[in-house]
């Protein structure tokens, strides 16, 4: 009771203008952070985003690490994707980011520009971290302007995750190289036969539009801006809206109610464009069986796909760069860690871990097969790190696309709004 | 929320300690020492206020006039952030959503609070139980878990949806419906009518019984008694409740954030002011703009408060005025 009364009192004080105060608080979060102790033991902070499942696995790998390095203690923290980055930004702004953290290509330039990321090259030279024994090309994902800002733990690629039962029921069989026309026809067939929308909202997914643009010779981002114009996006969103109307794409109303679940696992859609390792999550979340299908193409060949990656990055302000490097090295190279993690964060990036883990269950086997097939079909391109602000733009694309699908915004207004917000995001 | 009662009780404890025990000691040498002791007792609060409230407020006032992304050195831009607001369709939307929420939610909540207070003011068996029962939602209503419960109550196929369908009109779940989502939040705040209810109850107890007896003898019916006696007599309490609930409503954040699963959607339908402020500051790295928004909110709330205070001359009757 006492605490709640105090809280209430504060609420009153707030009436005098608290929201302002709450904001300023951001500036005061930069405390704490002492991490050494007398006997030479150091503590490093490690945070990541993901679900409970991932946390359980990671905690097991940390136990292994602490056994091998008894002088290094690891303090952990995890949230969902969105919350993770909000918290991270606040911590980083206060000068107190975690020593080591999960990272993705969207955030490299943003936090490099803000001076938050440690160039791990120096630790590689010092022999604390090895860049050898990685599967072909994956370490490239963590490189920005000659600096190594992230070390990949796993690689993934965009895919079409499908509800296999619904696809079978409708008699639809995706093939490598199928075209967008064939894909949309398939969605209609699924909707006709099962009464369930064929897709959960392809037109709101930045990474998919990126693939579509890549199939047509551009990309979502250039080095410092957008790789498409008003007319391109108007066409993409108009088509998307019409398909929601036609019922072959899930109503965004439903999508927003299904959150935090995906509409695919909630059985309100038969397929979803997302990262291939998400089948692990959907299998845990939903009742059906989920598989991977090829990305539709424009010319019957190119999918525009590339290998992306989840990485571990270090804070430029860490007091223990050596220990952090040893930690990352252990996490990416140790075979036991690979066995524990499986393909939770994508196909294991180092050859040691890749060799150590052989999936036995269908879901993980399929992910491996998918990436092998994709690689063999020769469609994989390379990824350039996104410009600063890409994360905000990704969220705006999803949000505005969803609003549009609700019929609350006209396409022209939505496109205008998106371009305005993108402009602001690049400048922020 | 129990803020109203506690404001009265809580806002002065430290000051009370500082006050001399009796008027007799005033002016004596001991007074100074006692004052010192008083300030000493207050010091944790003062330190907290300076460090956690006043300091950040001053900082945010400065940020409001700068271009600041949390990492750069704030760059002075004058009133740019403020003028930008009026061109920003999402800012306009957030103002509209918040205004709707305040204008619809506050009166409904107070009406319900007053209605229930009138019922509970009559003495009958189990009165204490009823008071506690009606107050309970106010204690838990602001919690995150209730937000989650609300979210599931108002989803497609959940109880609200099914009840509506049973009653013959179908709108589906409110949470995902851009036309209805805000009413989901309104319902949540109205449900937490306990705090104003308790204050109304206290107010009702203060109304002298003789007035009713006299009125009854003159043949006034229940409605006239309410309109001509109860309402004027509790108008200071009513004013207090209107003021607090209005100010409080402007600051809605938690329920919008949780019920919409952090997006304050769908289609910005629950994009309340503070939620947009939060998104701009913490998601879009526009801390300068967000600070400007915060000060704009402060100005708006101050203005509304001023108008309310001005209006009380017209409808609030304090005891000394009644003859």
What's this, in brief?
The complex is a heterodimer of chains A (428) and B (323). By secondary structure, chain A is an alpha+beta fold.
Count of separate structural domains of chain B: 2
Q: What would CATH call the homologous superfamily of the largest domain in chain B?
A: MetI-like
What is the CATH fold-level name of the largest domain in chain A? D-Maltodextrin-Binding Protein, domain 2
Low-pLDDT segments of chain B = 1-22
| pLDDT < 50 stretches of chain A | 1-34
Please state how the strands of the largest beta sheet of chain B are arranged side by side: 1-2
Oligomer: heterodimer
Q: What class would the helix/strand composition of chain B place it in?
A: mainly alpha
Whole-number radius of gyration of chain B?
Answer: 24 Å
Mean pLDDT of chain A: 88
Q: Would you identify the CATH architecture of the largest domain in chain A?
A: 3-Layer(aba) Sandwich
Number of domains in the coordinates of chain A? Answer: 2
Largest sheet of chain B: 2 strands, antiparallel
Query: Which term fits the overall shape of chain B?
Result: globular
Percent of residues in beta strands of chain B = under 5%
N-to-C span of chain A:
43 Å
């Amino acid at each position: 009771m006492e605490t709640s009364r105090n809280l209430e009192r504060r609420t009153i004080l707030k009436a005098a203008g608290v929201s302002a105060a709450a904001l300023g608080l951001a500036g005061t979060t930069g405390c704490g952070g002492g991490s050494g102790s007398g006997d030479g033991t150091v503590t490093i902070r490690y945070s990541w985003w993901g679900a409970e499942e991932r946390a359980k696995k990671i905690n097991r790998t940390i136990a292994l690490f602490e056994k091998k390095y008894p002088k290094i203690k690891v303090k952990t923290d995890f949230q969902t994707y969105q919350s993770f980055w909000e918290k991270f930004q606040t911590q980083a702004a206060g000068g107190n980011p975690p020593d080591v953290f999960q990272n993705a290509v969207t955030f490299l330039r943003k936090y490099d520009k803000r001076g938050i990321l440690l160039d791990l090259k120096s630790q590689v030279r010092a022999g604390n971290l090895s860049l050898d024994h990685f599967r072909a090309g994956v370490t490239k994902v963590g490189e920005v302007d000659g600096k190594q800002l992230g070390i990949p733990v796993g690689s993934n690629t965009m895919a079409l995750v499908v509800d296999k039962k619904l696809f079978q029921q409708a008699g639809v069989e995706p093939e490598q190289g199928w075209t967008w026309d064939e894909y949309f026809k398939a969605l209609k067939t699924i909707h006709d036969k099962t009464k369930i929308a064929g897709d959960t909202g392809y037109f709101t997914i930045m990474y998919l539009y990126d693939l579509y643009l890549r199939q047509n010779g551009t990309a979502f981002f250039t080095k410092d801006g957008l790789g498409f114009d008003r007319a391109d996006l108007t066409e993409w969103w108009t088509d998307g809206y019409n398909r929601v109307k036609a019922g072959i794409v899930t109503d965004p109303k439903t999508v927003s109610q299904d959150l935090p679940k995906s509409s695919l696992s909630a059985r309100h859609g038969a397929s979803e464009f997302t990262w291939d390792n998400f089948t692990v999550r959907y299998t845990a979340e939903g009742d059906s069986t989920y598989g991977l299908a090829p990305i539709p193409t424009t010319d019957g060949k190119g999918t525009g796909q590339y290998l992306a990656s989840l990485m571990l990055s270090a804070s430029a302000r860490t007091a223990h760069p050596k220990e952090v490097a040893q930690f990352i090295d252990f996490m990416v190279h140790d075979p036991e860690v690979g066995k524990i993690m499986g393909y939770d964060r994508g196909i294991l990036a180092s050859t040691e871990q890749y060799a150590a883990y052989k999936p036995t269950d269908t879901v993980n086997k399929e992910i491996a097969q998918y990436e092998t097939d994709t690689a063999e079909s020769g469609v994989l391109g390379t990824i350039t790190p996104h410009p600063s602000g890409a994360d905000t733009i990704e969220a705006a694309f999803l949000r505005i696309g969803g609003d549009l699908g609700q019929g609350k915004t006209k396409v022209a207004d939505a496109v205008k709004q998106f371009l305005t917000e993108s402009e602001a995001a690049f400048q922020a | 929320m129990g803020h109203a009662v506690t404001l009265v009780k809580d806002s002065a404890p430290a000051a009370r300690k500082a006050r001399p025990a009796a008027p007799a000691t005033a002016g004596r040498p001991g007074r100074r020492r006692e004052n010192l002791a008083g300030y000493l007792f207050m010091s944790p609060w003062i330190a907290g206020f300076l460090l956690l409230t006043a300091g950040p407020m001053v900082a945010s006032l400065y940020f409001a006039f700068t271009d600041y992304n949390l990492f750069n050195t704030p760059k002075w831009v004058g009133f740019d952030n403020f003028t930008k607001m009026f061109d920003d369709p999402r800012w306009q939307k957030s103002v509209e959503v918040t205004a709707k929420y305040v204008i619809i939610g506050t009166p409904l909540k107070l009406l319900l609070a007053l209605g229930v207070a009138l019922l509970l003011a009559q003495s009958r068996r189990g009165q204490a139980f009823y008071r506690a029962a009606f107050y309970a939602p106010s204690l838990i209503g602001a919690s995150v878990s209730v937000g989650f419960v609300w979210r599931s109550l108002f989803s497609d196929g959940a109880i609200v949806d099914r009840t509506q369908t049973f009653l013959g009109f179908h709108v589906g779940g409110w949470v995902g419906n851009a036309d209805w989502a805000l009413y989901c939040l309104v319902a949540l705040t109205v449900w937490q009518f306990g705090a104003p209810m308790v204050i109304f109850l206290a107010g009702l107890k203060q109304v002298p019984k003789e007035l009713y007896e006299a009125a009854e003898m003159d043949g006034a019916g229940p409605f006239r008694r309410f309109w001509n006696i109860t309402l004027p007599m509790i108008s200071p309490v009513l004013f207090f409740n209107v003021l607090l609930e209005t100010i409080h409503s402007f600051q809605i954040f938690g329920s919008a954030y949780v019920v919409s699963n952090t997006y304050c959607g769908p289609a910005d339908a629950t994009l309340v002011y503070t939620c947009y402020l939060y998104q701009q500051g913490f998601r879009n790295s526009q801390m300068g703009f967000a600070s400007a928004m915060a000060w704009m909110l402060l100005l708006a709330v101050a203005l509304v408060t001023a108008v309310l205070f001005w209006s009380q001359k017209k409808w609030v009757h304090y005891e000394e005025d009644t003859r």
